Amino acid sequence: MDHESTAAEFHATAVEPRLHDHKDMAGGIEPVTSAHPSEAVGSVTPDGGEPTDEEKQKLRKVSDKLPWSAFLVCVIELCERFTYYGLSGPFQNYIENSYGGSLPGAIGMGQTGATGLTDFFQFWCYVTPVLGAVISDQYLGKYWTIFYSALIYMVGNLILFLTSLPVAIENGAALGGLIAAMIVIGLGTGGIKSNVSPLIAEQYENTTPFIKTLKSGERVIVDPSTTITRIYMIFYMMINIGSLSSIATTELEAHVGFWAAYLLPFLMFIIGFAVLVAGKSKYKMRPPQGSIIPKAFKVMWIAITNKGNFNAAKPEYQEEFSSSGRKRNITWDSIFVEEVKRALVACKVFIFFPVYWVVYSQMLNNFISQAGQMQLHGIPNDLMQNWDPITIIIFIPVCDYFLYPGLAKLGFKMYPITRIFWGFMLGAGAMAYAAGVQKLIYKSGPCYEQVAACPAALLPDGSYSPNNVHVAIQAPAYLLIGLSEIFASITGLEYAFTKAPASMKSFIMSLFLLTTAFGSALSIALSPTAVDPKLLWMYTGLAVACFVAGIIFWLLYSRYNKTEESMNELEKYTEKPKPVGEATAHDLEKSKSANSSYRA
């Protein structure tokens, strides 16, 4: 059976039965009088009314105003990402190079060891969001999960700072302290990452498009989906403003010491934690729903045992068709079943992302080492990675205000699947360019394919000079990866939020983040190839893999562009977020009471 919802199937099985008597997940009644209220007042909908189907086709869609609480969440994420990238930016040098050498270092594990350990850290940081999501969706809610995770994060920051002091490095504490800090920080960031992304989108509560007349006289549709896209654009821009911290920490690493490079992010995280606490009364979130994740798996199990028929999990089906011996007491409504179906669409779309994340991760380790093989002219080799966030900060407004609206006017709508496809293509281009740079390094002296490892490169001080290529030539690779993130990574966050059930936003977001962990696992498997002269073929292979993955992705999933709007309509029938103070344990107890009545 085909489980992709067409617009007709959606309205027949999910929307129309709810128009007269809709019960939300908490059991409340939400009366809905018409699927399109505006149609009753004439062909031209007044301002504030829901647009007709004809107006949806003809009028331009614009973003709504964003609530201030969303910007507060942005500040929290900026501080957390400032900390994460400020810490991880110096990791490659900290691990790869020896203490007291020509390049900053502490542990001396070499490029392969450093790449493997940084890939492990990234893998760990993107596995733990699943745990954070379960805690949030079932027990604590987003705010309190973020709060307690932040406390854990700060403990990890403190461990890293203390073990990076010169006296600790000289006494061999650097490696043990680093591994301990990575584990603790990973636990903290997991609880934050899976919850802060859906929390920011939940600050915007409107789920129904409406007509608005601009000062110019143009009638437009204020569209929730377009608003969510803008929210994640701004959110991702804040992430990358925070990631510029590596500029400061790499300079501190080079001129003061690693202890100073790790102290600065620690202090910034404390500021973010203060904003989190101070803004508590401003945030809105959906309350935890008890065993909501097992409930979703029960829906899928019923569908599987009925030959893939998700309608069998709906209450009305159980009432009408189930035999008395197999009848189940259903504790969910039809909307929840449709949401689970929609979430499965998102999960299928996520399958190809690990290939993309392998490409993305190159700038966190191998690109830094590649820069070290070139003439730096006073530029720290790990400073070049900041071209990536600079590109993102510049081009997010360009895409949001000019590229996407301009293409829409020309009839080319940048639906999510289309954006992700182009993200893969740009990622493949970045790897192809990196392969070209590596080829140029190998063609240049003095050591050619064995960079900084031949007598011709030996300097009087005992160190080795890199090959004769200017490091600036590496910048376009970072630019291409930055552009690819705007199309693929931001859209992935948006897709995870808009396609997840209202009560499982954190869990589905964590599954998207988990694809990064799988990408890191692939990177760990590839780390033995991160040596001269294999680097050229590694970059070439990644370019081909990302290109092929993008093509297959488009062939399989481009059809979802046609049902994008109908899938998003489900949000109109879900429970709305509440202020943190009102999302109390009472909501959870009601959910637990409902769950206890389920029997197979």
From TrEMBL:
<feature type="transmembrane region" description="Helical">
    <location>
        <begin position="343"/>
        <end position="360"/>
    </location>
</feature>
<keyword id="KW-0813">Transport</keyword>
<dbReference type="Pfam" id="PF00854">
    <property type="entry name" value="PTR2"/>
</dbReference>
<feature type="transmembrane region" description="Helical">
    <location>
        <begin position="231"/>
        <end position="250"/>
    </location>
</feature>
<dbReference type="InterPro" id="IPR000109">
    <property type="entry name" value="POT_fam"/>
</dbReference>
<keyword id="KW-0812">Transmembrane</keyword>
<feature type="transmembrane region" description="Helical">
    <location>
        <begin position="146"/>
        <end position="167"/>
    </location>
</feature>
<feature type="transmembrane region" description="Helical">
    <location>
        <begin position="256"/>
        <end position="278"/>
    </location>
</feature>
<protein>
    <submittedName>
        <fullName>Peptide transporter PTR2</fullName>
    </submittedName>
</protein>
<feature type="compositionally biased region" description="Basic and acidic residues">
    <location>
        <begin position="569"/>
        <end position="592"/>
    </location>
</feature>
<feature type="transmembrane region" description="Helical">
    <location>
        <begin position="536"/>
        <end position="557"/>
    </location>
</feature>
<comment type="similarity">
    <text>Belongs to the major facilitator superfamily. Proton-dependent oligopeptide transporter (POT/PTR) (TC 2.A.17) family.</text>
</comment>
<feature type="transmembrane region" description="Helical">
    <location>
        <begin position="173"/>
        <end position="192"/>
    </location>
</feature>
<keyword id="KW-0472">Membrane</keyword>
<keyword id="KW-1133">Transmembrane helix</keyword>
<feature type="transmembrane region" description="Helical">
    <location>
        <begin position="507"/>
        <end position="530"/>
    </location>
</feature>
<dbReference type="GO" id="GO:0005886">
    <property type="term" value="C:plasma membrane"/>
</dbReference>
<feature type="transmembrane region" description="Helical">
    <location>
        <begin position="420"/>
        <end position="441"/>
    </location>
</feature>
<dbReference type="InterPro" id="IPR018456">
    <property type="entry name" value="PTR2_symporter_CS"/>
</dbReference>
<dbReference type="InterPro" id="IPR036259">
    <property type="entry name" value="MFS_trans_sf"/>
</dbReference>
<feature type="region of interest" description="Disordered">
    <location>
        <begin position="569"/>
        <end position="600"/>
    </location>
</feature>
<feature type="transmembrane region" description="Helical">
    <location>
        <begin position="390"/>
        <end position="408"/>
    </location>
</feature>
<dbReference type="GO" id="GO:0071916">
    <property type="term" value="F:dipeptide transmembrane transporter activity"/>
</dbReference>
<feature type="region of interest" description="Disordered">
    <location>
        <begin position="1"/>
        <end position="59"/>
    </location>
</feature>
<feature type="transmembrane region" description="Helical">
    <location>
        <begin position="475"/>
        <end position="495"/>
    </location>
</feature>
